[in-house]
Design goal:
Layout: H1 24-40, E1 44-47, E2 50-53, H2 61-72, H3 85-97, H4 100-117, E3 123-130, E4 133-134, E5 137-138, E6 141-144, E7 151-158, H5 168-186, H6 197-211
Helix pairs in contact: 3-4, 5-6
Bound molecules: zinc ion.
Residues 2, 4, 32-33, 177, 181, 195 line the site of zinc ion (ZN).
Length: 213
């Protein structure tokens, strides 16, 4: 589970690089985002023929209810997705040019177009240079929900170790992953945003609609 699951409770400032030894709640978040695909997924348990992540058993009854609902939602349909292909292409080009300003601008335009089509509240997107990291790995992206201001997605365009620009597909997936946390709260109306199998399927459904160019 990442800290996005605890809406509004964590005062993390993405402008500041996290300390190498992260605070407990940040660590939770960092861990989820660094290793979600190969750590949490490898620690699944079977619940009535359905795969669930191992943290499920630590959830309260109401959280389990939200988790189960999240698991059942496996796609998000983007109306007229093909109209967004030029923005996807422009983002790919900006990454190739390693132009931080353009990457941020086209990430913002893409997310704004998506939230507009899905009738979800706006999100502000910020792209920073090198991923923060610690001994456990690198932070790929961050979602900061907000009750008053627009929610914010922060992404990093360069890997921590080699300082290389992140591969386009990885960057786009991370951007959509963070937007999926936003959609959990603002589109599906979940009080928590959990990394469920359904969550990753929703991320994939958005990704493939945009990549079928
Ligand atoms: Zn996440």
């Amino acid at each position: 589970m990442c800290y996005a699951a605890y809406r509004g409770r964590v005062g993390y400032n993405p402008e500041r690089t996290p300390e190498p030894d992260l605070q407990r709640n940040q660590h939770f978040f960092i861990k989820a985002h660094i290793s979600a695909r190969f750590d949490i997924i490898t620690h699944c348990v079977v619940k009535s023929s359905q795969m669930v992540f191992s943290y499920y058993k630590r959830l309260t009854a109401s959280q389990k209810h939200v988790y189960d609902k999240s698991d059942k939602e496996t796609s998000v349909k983007i109306p007229n997705a093909s109209e967004l292909y030029p923005l996807v292409n422009a983002l790919e080009t900006a990454l190739k040019k390693e132009d931080r300003g353009e990457i941020e601008m086209f990430s913002q335009k893409l997310i704004s177009a998506l939230t507009y089509r899905l009738k979800a509240p706006a999100i502000k997107v910020k792209v920073l240079a090198v991923r923060p990291h610690n001994s456990r790995g690198e932070l790929h992206g961050l979602y900061n929900p907000s009750e008053r201001l627009p929610a914010m997605i922060t992404l990093w365009m360069r890997t921590a170790q080699q300082k290389r620009v992140v591969a386009f597909k990885t960057f786009l997936r991370t951007l959509l992953h963070e937007m999926c946390h936003h959609l959990d709260y603002e589109y599906f109306g979940f009080p928590y945003s959990f990394h469920t199998e359904g969550f990753y399927k929703r991320e994939s459904s958005l990704f493939h609609q945009l990549m079928d160019r």
